[in-house]
Amino acid sequence: MKEIYLDNAATSYPKAPGVAETVSHFLSSIGCNVNRGAYTKAYQTEEVIYETRELLCRLFRFDKPENVVFTKNVTESMNVIIKGLLKSGDHVIVSSMEHNAVMRPLNNLRARNLEVDILECNKEGALSPDQVESLPSLIQANTKAVFMTAASNVCGTMLPLKEIGHFCRMNNIFFIVDSAQTAGFTEMDMNWLNVDALAFTGHKGLLGPQGIGGFLVNKRIEPSIEPLIEGGTGSFSELETQPACMPDKFEAGTLNIPGIFGLNAALKYLFKVGIDKIREQELHLLNLFMTRILEIPSAQLIGKSDLQDRTSIISINFPKHDNAEVSYLLYKEHGIMTRSGLHCAPSGHKTLGTFPHGTVRFSFSHFNTEEEVLKVIDCIWRSLNTL
Question: Rounded to whole angstroms, how far apart are CA atoms 27 and 257?
């Protein structure tokens, strides 16, 4: 049985061509650390790491490579930003579609007198102009930041970052964006969007390996964020306090250098193919899937039913069946890999009306084909007829 992978919102597969070979080459032929050795391989490794920072600046239209910080993923990035930025008595605003990478650290800080207000999205997971206009009513004298996902990992709906970013800048509020589901799918310009900090992960749309991610911070917000982890950086070793220079301020300990090498190869692939072409292919496959899934009476599409302002993630509810059972049967009988449940975003599911039963999520890659999509639709029909 040929397997079909449709769980790219969790992690992309396959990875970009050249990623595995690049990681292997580093481990087998280079293997050194950086900022610690005065020899050629160490200098060459640092060049690749700096080049990767530059590639990420190109991706997000940013102009300070030294302000690109590497972490493991968006979750770690958000923890660094949230716990380093927010203090007792601060107030923040989030959308109702946020992932637990944002909600859990924020809720942890609520015990330390952090105030959190939620900007409610509609039943499609979107923010309408009227809802955006309601944002001023949530602002308080102690409002420090707005946190917002660029797109829902549940239903694929994209949120209006430009409008929110403009509002934040006009009101001197920090704007922090989670790009986990849009990086590699659509162009993002931090300056044009008025984003102060942007968190990314390498293993989803960027088509890199797991365990490498990071964040970009502008000069407006960086001084306000205290490091979460402190330790050796290879710089200013005479000091027993954390260096204040970037990116050392946030990069204590040995980096995931094999992951950075893999991300470097993935970013070069994305630029070679073109993000616009990747998005066009993924939305083409989504449209085909969406058209056919709407023909199944017992399948309920969750979120937007058109291609406007959305990614290639789609959630389906099967009201007459157990969604987990449908997902399991699709794999057991047909080799189709999806994800069922709440997708680490209970707030989003409450907004969409799919809590606590969740959905079956299908998330496409440009490596998928029309033939695979049509087979999946046929297998959904067949699976539902056996339940």
Answer: 9
- What is the rounded CA–CA span in Å between residue 6 and residue 54? 31
For residue 221, pLDDT beyond 90 = yes
Tens of pLDDT, residues 115-127: 999 999 999 999 9
How many domains are there within the chain? 2
DSSP state of 226: P
Within this chain, do residues 84 and 61 fall inside the same structural domain, yes or no?
yes
96 and 183 inside one domain: yes
The mean pLDDT of 271-296, rounded to a whole number, is 98
pLDDT tens-digit readout, 354-377: 999 999 999 999 999 999 999 999
- 84 neighbors 235 (Cβ within 8 angstroms): no
Tokens 């599911």 sit at which residue?
349
Q: Are residues 116 and 207 in the same domain?
A: yes
CA distances from 116 to 112, 146, 178 (A): 12, 10, 17
Is there a contact between 199 and 180 (Cβ–Cβ < 8 Å)? yes
> Measured between alpha carbons, how far is 8 from 313 in angstroms, rounded to an integer?
8
The total of other beta-carbon atoms located within 10 Å of residue 274's CB is 10
CATH number for the domain spanning 343: value is 3.90.1150.10
Query: For residue range 41-65, what is the model confidence (pLDDT) as tens digits?
Result: 989 999 999 999 999 999 999 999 9
Looking at residue 384, its pLDDT comes to: 95
Q: How many helices (H) and strands (E) does the chain have?
A: 12, 13
95 pLDDT higher than 80: yes
Q: Which residues contact 38 (CB under 8 A, 6 or more apart)?
A: none
| pTM for the full predicted model | 0.96
Task: Please report, for residues 100, 157, 241, 276, the alpha-carbon distance to residue 184 in angstroms, rounded to integers and kept in the order given.
Answer: 21, 16, 37, 9
pLDDT exceeds cutoff 90 at 264: yes
Residue 37: pLDDT over 80: no
319 and 251 share one domain: no
Q: Which residue has the tokens 């007198």?
A: 113
Cα 350 from chain centroid (whole Å) = 20
